[in-house]
Amino acid sequence: SDKPGRTILASSISKTYVEEITKKIESMRNIRPNGPLLVGFLANNDPAAEMYANWTGKTCESMGFRYELRRIEEKDFLEEAIIDANRDTSVDGIMVYFPVFGNAQDQYLQQVVSREKDVEGLNHVYYQNMYHNIRYLDNDKQLKSILPCTPLAVVKILEFLKVYNNLLPEGNRLYGKKCVVVNRSEIVGRPLAALLANDGAIVYSVDINNIQKFTRGEGLKFSKHQVEDLGNYSDDLLRECCADSDVIVTGVPSPDYRFPTDYIRDGAVCINFSSHKNFDDSVKSKASLYVPSTGKVTISMLLRNMLRLVENRQKLNQL
Ligand code: NAD
């Protein structure tokens, strides 16, 4: 047959998380009778951001959260508005729809969001913990660190697809697996490559300029990933990396890009997180499991992060 494998949709992967989250919200009724409150800040006129904001709102409300979209007409007032929400004890989670200024000021604004309310997991402390493979915020290992939503969503998808082998010790469950990640942005691709390598995989991290290898070394001797430059980007080098790769993840933000189907080894798992379709339909003739988009899992991770933040704050108040 021309389709040896299966296409798996993000909506079916997110189901288990939606159930888990809905249950947890019920168990929080004593402290949050109307559900935890997520505040989204929209300070641009980007219709895509507006759509994403509306979708976040609907998803939140369908799962028992409260969602408030705060529109900021004057960009220069956004920082104060975030600080107000940081201080407001009725606000449980905060997210900002970027780009706002479209330059480094956006990274500054992201860090203005209080670490305790950063549902997207973009605070520097969370990033550094992730890169250093540190999973807790405290020495007593009571407070779990937060992971950035989209990389975390790809990890959860790989768990669902059983690429993670749960017979292996936690933290090594990708031992023996090789993955290609086409995207090395600071928001998704680089953290994703690090997460997969920290879990034991050999990861080829591909961007428009070059290809790097992220690993924990021979026999997973290091406790966190190391990075090695393999050379400038070329189709030949990419093809070589793909030849024995078990997983191919794409995130190229371009409508014209298509990952070459003939580079995919028979039976590889293929996942696209770009908002554009990065795989041609012929991927189905090669992939064992193909996940065409990840957004629904990402939003589940956002809400899961939010519940973790509420729990962490609850534990902190008890200490
Ligand atoms: P970005 O522009 O910051 O990064 C793009 C990356 O892709 C860069 O590393 C670039 O070098 C690489 N790249 C571009 N063209 C390439 C090519 N031809 N070959 C190899 N590498 C190439 O974008 P981003 O913020 O990482 O977002 C990427 C995509 O992911 C967008 O479509 C965005 O909408 C989507 N996204 C999805 C989610 C989700 O939850 N599904 C979350 C965030 C972003």
Secondary structure topology:
Layout: E1 6-7, H1 10-27, E2 37-42, H2 47-62, E3 66-71, H3 78-87, E4 93-97, H4 104-112, H5 124-131, H6 149-160, E5 178-182, H7 189-198, E6 202-206, E7 210-215, E8 226-232, H8 235-243, E9 247-250, E10 269-272, E11 289-291, H9 295-318
Parallel strand pairs: 1-11, 2-3, 2-4, 5-6, 5-9, 9-10, 10-11
Antiparallel strand pairs: 6-7, 7-8
Supply the key terms.
319 residues, alpha/beta, Rossmann fold, 2 domains, eight-stranded mixed β-sheet, three-stranded parallel β-sheet, 9 helices, binds nicotinamide-adenine-dinucleotide
Outline:
The chain has helices spanning 10-27, 47-62, 78-87, 104-112, 124-131, 149-160, 189-198, 235-243, 295-318; strands at 6-7, 37-42, 66-71, 93-97, 178-182, 202-206, 210-215, 226-232, 247-250, 269-272, 289-291. With 319 residues, it is of the alpha/beta class.
| Average pLDDT metric | 96
Which percent range describes the beta-strand content?
Answer: 15-25%
Ligands, ions, cofactors: nicotinamide-adenine-dinucleotide
Main-sheet strand order equals 1-11-10-9-5-6-7-8
CATH architecture type of the largest domain: 3-Layer(aba) Sandwich
